[in-house]
Amino acid sequence: MEIKLLTLYSDVTAVPVKWLWHPYIAIGKITLLQGDPGCGKSSMMMNLIAELSNGGSTPDGRAFGPPQRIIYQCSEDGAKDTIKPRLIAAGADCRNIAFIDEEVYSGLTLDDERIREAITEWRPRLVVIDPIQSYIGNDSDLQLASKARKLMRRIGMWASTYNCAIVLIGHFTKNEGAKDLYRGLGSIDVVAAARSVLQVEKSEEDAEVRIVKQVKNSLDSNGADLSFEIRPHTGFKWLGVATEESDMEESQTVAAFEALPKNKHELAALLIKRALGKGAVESMEIRRIMAEYRIGEKTMNEVKAELGIKPYRKRKAWYWILPGSNN
Question: What does residue 74 show for φ and ψ, rounded to 5 degrees?
């Protein structure tokens, strides 16, 4: 039987990108989270891990859906006296969070076969390696383009094959004058392999506030800058969008997380009006937005009637539009 070397793109079925947290962390891809030591990268990820583990929501209020499994591999803190207490404080369901015990399985490296075996066994939705520097055989492995490319390609294949998001946490180098994409450890091939690159920096106005910037996104437009605080008495808390962006498209990051209405009817009305602010939108898109925020069909339809929205059909698709708007 003849084996075909080439595959026609006409035989490939196009599928949309799946997101763990749009547009910051994609499923089946590598995300790089970088910043100075002590800037709060791990605290930020623990907050996301906690929400994901119990079926919570993203910082901008989008539902994660059912509780998911996570592998959180961290070498810088103790599992018993530091990591688990932090996870509990964040409200995590630790039954859904696992790690490879490095006191038992020592010498773990970034592309270690044992990590792949752990992924196949646990089938997590998210894998976090913290920090990347502790899981490379030698610093030169990331400095040399050929080694970095091979290493990242293998990790990327794991993410794609096992349908999980892989987040690599890395420290900044001391080269403060470099451009954002070049401030992380190793060859630029590390950044090239990541589909999303996030970096955490301290706010110049408040030492307890951190700014999260997306400096690369190969899958969508860059997300808005976000902010969180870590204070001695109140701990970790998301603050909202760090930049003043009043003209965000449709259901993208809401201007201030804390400003979201708690009442489902009020929230639905806000989201629908925001989505239809520039004109007609397909009804399937409205339903997608409602699902992200866990708003049911009944509530959606009640708000639709209250707003006076009358859907219309065009080219086999149904559209919503606010009264008085132009088609």
Answer: -130, 130
Cα three-residue angle 275-276-277, rounded to 5 degrees: 95
- Given its phi and psi angles, is residue 308 left (phi above 0), alpha (psi -120 to 50 degrees) or beta? left
Count, in order, helices (H) and strands (E) of the chain: 9, 14
For residue 250, give Cα distances in angstroms to 122, 178, 246, 310, 311.
36, 34, 11, 19, 18
Give me the DSSP letters along 240-280: EESS------TTSS-S-GGGS-SSHHHHHHHHHHHHTTTS-
- Run of H or E residues at 50: helix 41-53
Nearest to 29 by CA among 155, 214, 151: 155
Cβ proximity of 102 and 109 under 8 Å: no
Q: Are strands 209-217 and 97-98 parallel, antiparallel or unpaired?
A: unpaired
Beta-bridged to residue 293, according to DSSP, are none
CATH architecture of 17-241: 3-Layer(aba) Sandwich (3.40)
Phi, psi of 300 (to 5 degrees): -60, -45
Q: How does pLDDT run across 237-285, given as a tens digit for each residue?
A: 998 887 544 344 434 444 445 456 778 888 888 889 888 888 888 888 8
Strands (E), 23-163: 25-26, 30-35, 70-74, 97-98, 126-130
Structure tokens belonging to residue 134:
């502790």
Query: What is the tens place of the pLDDT at every residue in 191-236?
Result: 888 999 999 999 988 989 999 999 999 999 999 999 999 998 889 9
For residue 319, the cross-strand partners are 282, 312
